[in-house]
Each structure stands twice: as structure tokens, then as C-alpha cells.
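WARN retry 2 of 3 for item q-0093 after timeout on previous attempt; input resubmitted unchanged.
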Amino acid sequence: MRPELQILTAAEAVARIPSDATVAVSGLVGAGHPEALTSSLEKRFLEDGKPDNLTLIYAAGQGDGDRRGLNHLAHPNLLKRVIGGHWNLAPRLGNLALAGDIEAYCFPQGVICQLFRDIAAHRSGVLTKVGLNTFIDPAHGGGRLNSRTTEPLVERTQLCGEDWLHYRAFPINVGLIRATRADGAGNLTMEREGLIGEVLPIAQAVRNHGGLVIAQVEEITDGPAAPHAVRVPGMLIDALVVAEPGQHDQTFAESFNASYVEAGGRVAPAPMPFSERKIIARRVLREIGAGSIVNLGIGMPEGVVPVAAEEGLLDKFTLTLESGPIGGMPAGGLSFGCSSHPEAIIDQPAQFDFYDGGGLDVAVLGAVTIDAEGSVNISTLGDRFAGVGGFVNISQNAQKVVFCCPFRVGGLEVGVDEDKLQIKQEGRHCKFVESVPQVAFHGPTAYARGQEVLYVTERAVFRLGNNGLDLIETALGIDLETGVCAQMEFRPNITDPKIIPAECFRKD
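OK item q-0093 returned
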């Protein structure tokens, strides 16, 4: 039976959320996140102590690194369990997990948003190879982040003689989603949203388990929405909340940027100042062929965009984001997940279908640490847990993966003299370690499946071989033994390394 649609305040809407419920929240960073709902839920809990014992599930990280987004929900007793893809922008949640105050799981972003679809369809869960031989594999911890977390939610199984991971489905009782407008029947449109995300599968999953779907919108229109514009039909919506000013910004960095939802030419980014980051971006750019479909990770990989613009190459390949934008120029920082003047914006689960099937020609990703067998850690950062986001889906399935990072970090300063790289001050912390603390990308598995994998730094370039890392290039001016090998915790395989092309070291 179609639910009776109600128009409520945020406080009235979250008052309907029962204790012990499983709650799904949409969004990525700040785009698509229902800030009015999560902030009101926090307020209710702090005032009344209810609801309590909630299970929170979300696909992409949602937060500003401080108070907003899912940080609102980071209270002991409010949450019992969290299942999330990326944790770094919600450090308050991460602190609860590290302290053992909640049960905590980290699963790949793509798997979680696909899991919403399987929950909606009452299937057993997601059957995929994404996560095999990483810390998410039950053979290596099952994505569980502390000793309090004991229930296995992912299992390793065999099908047709091959190993697979099965991520178990479970009912979702409450969905907190966001759109731009709703008509009187509750049909949701998203014309001012920088991404579509996973709003439809969340609403379908909750509806098909008899739960409560609350949608935050900017306004409710008088006339009916155009059918082709509707992203979530009103039959799935139980309650509408019109957000207060300041609680429906397009991202956590910008109230509204029209370029994120409009076609048009690219705006050239500001030139990148010379640094080790620019050297790395120039070398990475040489791995992206004309016509390539590309995903750039957050952080160091973002440097490829301004460098490609400077070189006049930005229109030679198509940039995509795991959140759904295709084409255009990806935004960074707290607007990550959006893209200026995209050619299309598709649903996030559909984007991951494409990624998982090998649709990416090149993925350019960061790395926290890299070990002797070519495995990569991106999920643990000293005393905090960052999570994996879309990293596992992307790195495991792209045709070519280029990891990029400074050779060492913590005070590294570089210069160039006549095309020769100079290390003016060495970084304090080693990036190339004997063994990574947590495997998010497994080198031997990648090599076995024939994946091309490179590791690019400002002074050395490595390729994944059958026995770990092969050193294939070094920078002119860098001594192989003292400047490279002595600065690593292991010795790479060395045959006849070439010189990194001189154009990577131009000072402009």
C-alpha cells in the first residue's frame, strides 16, 4: 500500500525514527547529504537520549572533518554499529570505532551502494571479487575494525571454481535522503544537486522492508514534476522536510555552484606551482593515452588536472568520478564528488557497475604506504582510520593503475638544477615499507590477473612485477643507492632503470 505522504519539520521527522533501527544515509562528502536530518537527529538524541542502539550504513564518506555530516551521529549509545565505506571526513565516528565504543566495519564504497539494490530486491547480498585478499576479505579480518566487532558480514565462497566474496544483505528500516525539489505527490527531482548518488536504491530498500523514508528538499512545488526528471518516485517517500537555510548547501564548501549541474566549456584551473607534486603529475600524465576513460583519486592525483590543462591535454581523455559525474573537471576538497560542466551525471551504483567491469582505462590513486610485494595501504593513517571509499573497486578493476605519492613525506623539499633533481631536505617518513599495516590493494593478486600497475614518485618510478616492485626509472641527479634504495625499507628489483623524462622537471 502506498504510504501517506507527510510534510514535517526536521525535528518531527526524526522523532519517527525508532531505537534499534538500521539507518541508511545518502551523500558523498557534503554533496547529497541531508544535513538538516542528521543534525536534528543528533539534537533529539542529546535532549532525549532517543533513539538509541542504531545501526548506521552509508556508502561514501560524509562530513567536513569536524562537526557536519555523519559527525552529528558520533555518540555512544546513539549508535551500536556502523558500516561505512570512507571514514576520514567523519573523524568522530572513527574515534568511536578506534575506542571500541561501537561495532565498526569498512566495506568498499561500490559494494555498499550496490548492496542497497540487492537489499531492495530481497537478494542474499552482493557477490563480487571486490575486496579479495585485502583486509576486507574474511581471511584477513573481514573489514572489522575493532575487537568489539564480531559478527561476520562478508564471507568467502567458491563459485565455478573461483573465489568470491559474498556481502550479506539485511533489512534497512530508515532511509535519510536528499533531493532538490518535491512535488505534491512526493516525487523528487535533483536539478541543483551535484550528484545523484544512491538515493533511489536506498528508498527502494527501505520501502521494501516496511521502513521509513525521509527526504530533505529545498522546496515543494505546486505543479507535478516532469516524469523524466524524477529520480525517486513519491510512492517511496513517507515524509518530506523542507530544509532551513544553510542546511541544504550544494556541498560543504559551496552554497551553490552552477557549473556542477550545467553543460559548457571547462574553466581552466589555476597553474600548479613547481613542487614534487607537479613532477609526479607530469610523469603520471604520460600514462594516460588519448581517448582514455580515467578516474582520479583525492589528494595527490588531483594534480593531474591542472597539469593536463597547462599541457593542453585535458580534452584528450574523459575524467569520471565514482559518485557519478562523467566528463567535466572534478572538484576537490569539500566539493569532491562534483564535477564542473560534466557531460552526464549517473547513479553511483551504475558508475561502480562500469568500474567493476573493467571500464576504466586508467585509475590514478594515492598511497599511504607501499610494500615489497607491491601491496598498498590507504586506510590507516597513524592514529586514525581513513577507510577505503571507492579505492578497492577502482584499483582492483581498472585496466591500468598508477599509484602516486612523494618518495618520502614529512618536510620533503625538492629543487631542480639543469634538469637534475635535488633533494634539499629529505622527508622524515618512509613510504616504501617492508610490509603495509593494512592491505587495500594486493600486489600479487593484481599481477596474477595481468593488471598493469605503476608507482610514481618524484625521484623513482616502479612497475609491479612477478617478484614485487621493479625499479624502471630514476630522476637525473639522484644516486640510485643513497637517494633511492637507502630511503626504502626493502630493496626493489633493479635491472637497467631509465631516466625520468626531463620535461617532468621543468620549473614552469
